[in-house]
């Protein structure tokens, strides 16, 4: 097996045609006008195969061989049991399977960054953001909601006072420096619904009040919303969405998503559907609070059933439920954990 090569002696630019061959003792033998020379393969630095680029063999005496016959060189190297340390690049080029695997791997890494990395960053970032930002976002979100979806409540002033006292009682032992405030509204669009806005504004709809049978059920809903506030879910959701937008700006050069994310912060605080993880955290907070205050967990399960029934009969937007884990699962959790 002979491989044609162009030999450069390292001193002049002249290319000398030579032949390379594998000697029986495993050395590489160079034959041509320069005579016969032999080298140990271990002393030769062979460049990695990259497409059809000529490969270079750097010889220990300063000479260099250039080979364009890739197939012949490959079989010589294979016969010499040569292993290219950087061969995987070539394999990737040669095999679609590998290339596809690489693409899938990159996609998986990106997905991991978006699904896990950004939420983790958002949680860390939320902890460093002063509560003042929550207050501004909360007020803006309420103003946006009032424009878009909310109407004045029909609850009497006495009823309002009672419900505010109810929330104050639920929020009394909430950790952190939140100023909880109950906002009652009517909303056909949101239906029987409750929302926690940043900084501690809890919005409860008249429709939800109608769906509740007693104060304990309302306490359960309020405790769930207090959980959202305590864990700063709205702010974290905003940061996550901005983070995803920032990520796509850096990777894809798509600035539009970031600018719209910044412009839409208040609206996002309202419309951002809480993730199942956030809902589970808020549920856990509510159930723990109810346990501490000897409020039977049935109140929570019954309230969830009432909300589902309200959605089914009235055809309301199932806002409170849609973004939440399946009602049956949540009711099940309320039952299981009661010990
Ligand atoms: Zn929730």
Q: Can you offer a commentary on this structure?
A:
There is one protein chain. The chain is α+β, with helices and mostly antiparallel strands. Helix content is 56%, strand content 15%. The protein is built from 14 helices and eleven strands. The strands form two sheets. A seven-stranded antiparallel β-sheet has the order 4-3-2-1-7-6-5. Strand 2 and strand 3 (28-32) form a beta hairpin. Helix 7 packs across helix 11 and helix 8 (233-252) packs antiparallel against helix 9 (255-263). Residues 314-323 have low confidence and may be disordered. The chain binds zinc ion. Zinc ion is lined by residues 224, 228, 274, 279, 282, 324. Zinc ion (ZN) binds next to helix 7 and helix 11.
Report a brief summary of the structure.
The protein has helices at 70-79, 87-94, 96-128, 131-148, 157-171, 206-211, 215-230, 233-252, 255-263, 265-271, 276-292, 298-314, 319-322, 327-336; strands spanning 2-8, 16-22, 28-32, 35-39, 45-46, 55-58, 64-67, 151-152, 181-186, 194-197, 201-205. It is α+β, with helices and mostly antiparallel strands and 339 residues long.
């Amino acid at each position: 097996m002979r491989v044609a090569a162009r030999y450069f002696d390292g001193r002049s630019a002249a290319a000398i045609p030579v032949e390379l061959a594998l000697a029986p003792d495993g050395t590489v033998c160079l034959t041509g006008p320069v005579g016969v020379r032999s080298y140990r393969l271990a002393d030769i630095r062979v460049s990695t195969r990259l497409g059809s680029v000529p490969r270079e063999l750097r010889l220990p005496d300063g000479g260099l061989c250039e080979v364009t016959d890739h197939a012949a060189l490959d079989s010589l190297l294979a016969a010499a049991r040569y292993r290219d340390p950087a061969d995987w690049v070539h394999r990737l080029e040669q095999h679609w399977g590998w290339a596809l695997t690489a693409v899938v791997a990159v996609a998986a890494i990106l997905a991991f960054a978006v699904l896990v990395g950004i939420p983790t960053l958002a949680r860390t970032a939320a902890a460093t953001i002063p509560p003042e930002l929550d207050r501004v976002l909360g007020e803006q979100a309420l103003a946006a909601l009032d424009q878009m979806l909310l109407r004045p409540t029909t609850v009497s002033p006495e009823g309002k006072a009672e419900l505010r006292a109810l929330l104050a009682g639920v929020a009394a032992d909430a950790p952190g420096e939140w100023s909880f405030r109950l906002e009652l509204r009517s909303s056909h669009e949101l239906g029987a619904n409750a929302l926690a806005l940043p900084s501690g504004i809890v919005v409860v709809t008249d429709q939800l009040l109608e769906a509740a049978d007693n104060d304990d059920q309302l306490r359960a809903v309020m405790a769930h919303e207090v959980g959202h506030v305590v864990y700063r879910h709205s702010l974290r959701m905003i940061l996550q969405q901005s983070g995803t937008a920032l990520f796509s700006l850096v990777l894809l050069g798509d600035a539009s998503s970031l600018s719209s994310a910044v412009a839409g912060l208040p609206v996002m605080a309202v419309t951002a559907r809480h993730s199942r993880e956030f809902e589970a955290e808020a549920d856990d907070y509510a159930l723990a609070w109810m346990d501490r205050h000897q409020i039977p967990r049935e109140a929570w399960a019954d309230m969830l059933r009432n909300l589902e029934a309200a959605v089914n009969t009235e055809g309301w937007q199932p806002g409170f439920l849609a973004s939440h884990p399946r009602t049956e699962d949540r009711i099940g959790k309320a039952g299981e954990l009661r010990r």
